Amino acid sequence: MSEAFDRPPRKISFEEWAADFKTIPREIRERFRSWEGTSEASSYIENPACFVEHGGDSRLRSLRFDNSLASFVLWSLLLSEEDRLHAARRAGKTIIGALKDLGTVPVIAFSAPGTVAFYPDGAWWLPCLMEMEEGLLRLADSLGFGEEACPARAALAAFVNGAHFPLPDLVVAAAGSCCDDFSALMQRVADLGHKTVWWELPYRRDSGKIGGAVERTATGLIVPARVVDFVEGELGRVKKAIEETVGARISEPMLREGVRKANRIRGVLAEIRDLAYGRRPCPLPALEAQICEMLAIHFCSDLGAAFDVLSFVAETIRSRVENGRGVLDPEACRAVWVNPVADLRVMNMFEDLGGAVAGSEYMFRQALIPIPVDRPPLRALALTVLADPMIGSAAYRARLVVEEAERYGAEGVVVSNIPGASHCATEHAVIAEVVRERLDLPVLEVTVPPLADSGLSQLRTRFETFFEIIRSRRHR
Hints:
The radius of gyration is 21 Å and the shape is globular. By secondary structure, it is of the alpha/beta class. Helix content is 47%, strand content 12%. The chain is built from 19 helices and 12 strands. The protein has a domain of 159 residues: Rossmann fold (3-Layer(aba) Sandwich). The protein has a 4-stranded parallel sheet with strand order 4-3-5-6, sandwiched between helices. Strands 10-9-11-12 form a 4-stranded parallel sheet, sandwiched between helices. The protein has a two-stranded antiparallel sheet with strand order 1-2. The longest helix is centred in the middle third of the chain and has 27 residues.
């Protein structure tokens, strides 16, 4: 690693980040150079100024970043995804747009030759990153999805204006146990005329007697075998639709290879989470840790690059831990964070005021667990689907939060509600009750809109009060 980057870990401003770009060693640029499956060569490490000046991601100027080389690579992979998708289109690859399921359909799609998958859902971050300049929420308003709806409404607007991602050759949409707003959004996307295959994601009953044969998910959940049969059949229909779109068969060995590659990424992520959330001082800031977790969902449209980048992140924070280095105060107040935030500045603020994320539940736990390799691939994926925390009870999510807090020694829990999301109406109360009953920890509920400018002062006060409570409890 270059001497210029052999320095104590810390968070830096956008200006420092952009200036450091000039000192990135050549060997690092070469290590992350090409986009898989295209004839275009481009380093993943881009000058951050390009994402602001040409990509319009002006909110980056307001953030603070980890100062490692791995952070440069990680952010570049994330922010260059639209360019990578357009490069895939120019290269003649088939593009699959997956909606809702978070972590399953891309494993099938990337098993097919010449195919990439992505989640248009991710457009919900664009209004924040581009500080509303892209007009997606205004367009969503005109389409009948106003402020009362989840910020994911930006995805519908992105399909309409076509200014962000290439329109997919096939949309795969999960229906059934789904957020009300997002269910309506997916129907509108289908009504636009996009080729769509629907598959049903059933509700998972997390309590009560289950009759008949049962199977166990990788997370220990007991589910009826007949439900696993059903989901396996639904995924078989998805596979067939992808095959018809691609014009090539996806064989069982190809699926097994796709599962192997996905599990390789999930294995690296497990190490990153344990190091980032379980160590004092914290070796990786919350924003970078959250981005790492997000790569498990669809590999940021490049499965090979996602593994390389995550491996680099793991290598970096492993070195920091071995040398006793961290980015935050060892006495930071440690909390499990529930639900992702749209306005990324809030995570910066949380840490700047004395907090540290020590565990997470970002709504896609099923994308982080190993896919079983002792069963046929589609059945293994069906079992993974059925571990989705969002298709069961809020009590199950609460138990996941408790497990995170116990595993990483958290001192509190923050539930970040998403404006307009139907599941947010009641889950905080359930999570808070279970956490207090099982662990006697304080729980803070906040609501973070896509742009939280008007509420930042109030959030600051609430975080400071939350930290005072945690510190006072240390001396009981």
